[in-house]
Amino acid sequence: MEATQTGPQGLVTTELRAQALAALCCPDIERKRELTCALYAAAERTPLNPAVRLAPPAGVTLPGRPALPRLVQPKQVAQRSPFTPEGRAALIHAICHIEFNAINLALDAVWRFAGMPRQFYLDWLRVAAEESYHYGLLREHLLTMPHAQAGQHWDYGDFDGHDGLWTMCERTAHDVTARMALVPRTLEARGLDATPQIQAKLRRVGTADALQAMALLDIILRDEVGHVEIGNRWYRWLCQREGLDPVALYGELVRRHQAPPLRPPFNQEARLRAGFSQQELDYLLGA
């Protein structure tokens, strides 16, 4: 049985990449997650036309998202101490925001880039589904975290967020090689480096909610290694197809698209498991 769903403007579609675009356009997060996970579950038996070039419906702004959180410049996002209940809630909210954006980034890779092998689309649908799972874990945890007001709870949207991940998505919208280089293996790979540091802070906090968050981050780090590996694998595949040196090209793409500089410490063990070569790690350490 073919998977079907109602896409933008009520259009019924069965093609896999069109369904990914419909999920990306959806502003309701829970519905977006439902569409994403259903599409991934049915992906092997869903029709795929890699050659077709798709476009969002007229008047639709990507990605579909709720009115909250309010989006501000990265430097305007308030920094709070994880040693306070509100600070820990803000920290989990920030990671939840990253995971929501990561759903959209993966869906965007599926619909946007025509002419790739079938496995490319299946890989990024898997990423979208796993990012949806991560978002759910974090939001459920956020709902249970201590709140200063009795009877109240935290939720996604209660704190400001920024749009740095989607900004790079837009900058690389017309270049699949740049997208693979600068989103999964640059911006998302920063999570491999940051997670152990966040966990160390939560360990020092030592409260029940902090220790539970540490355990959730173990799950997320495990999966994110695989997501970065997918980005590395397809980046190298594209470089090989074009006869390009992946290390030299990476530096050029960073400059061309104004990617943020990466600074140590790097989680070298996780990066090696995610498919970075020692040459690439040496480049980062010397960049």
> Would you identify the regions where 5 or more consecutive residues have pLDDT less than 50?
1-12
What structural class should be given to the helix and strand makeup? mainly alpha
Radius of gyration: 19 Å
CATH architecture: Up-down Bundle
Spatial order of the strands forming the largest sheet: 1-2
State the domain count: 1
CATH topology: Ferritin
The main pleated sheet reads as: 2 strands, antiparallel
Order of helices and strands: EEHHHHHHHHHHH
Rough outline = globular
What percentage of the residues does DSSP assign to strands (E)? Answer: under 5%
Terminal Cα span: 51 Å
Number of helices: 11
Number of strands: 2
CATH level-1 class: Mainly Alpha
Would you tell me the overall average pLDDT?
93
Query: Helicity range of the residues?
Result: 55-70%
Overview of the molecule:
Helix 7 (190-205) runs antiparallel to helix 8 (208-242). This protein has a single domain, classed as Ferritin. It is globular, with a radius of gyration of 19 Å. It has a two-stranded antiparallel ribbon with strand order 1-2. It starts with a strand and ends with a helix. Helix content is 61%, strand content 1%. By secondary structure, it is mainly α. It has helices at 16-25, 29-41, 85-112, 118-144, 164-171, 176-187, 190-205, 208-242, 246-256, 268-273, 278-286; strands spanning 5-6, 12-13. The protein contains 11 helices and 2 strands.
Structure characteristics:
2 strands, 11 helices, disordered N terminus, globular, 287 residues, two-stranded antiparallel sheet, Ferritin, mainly alpha
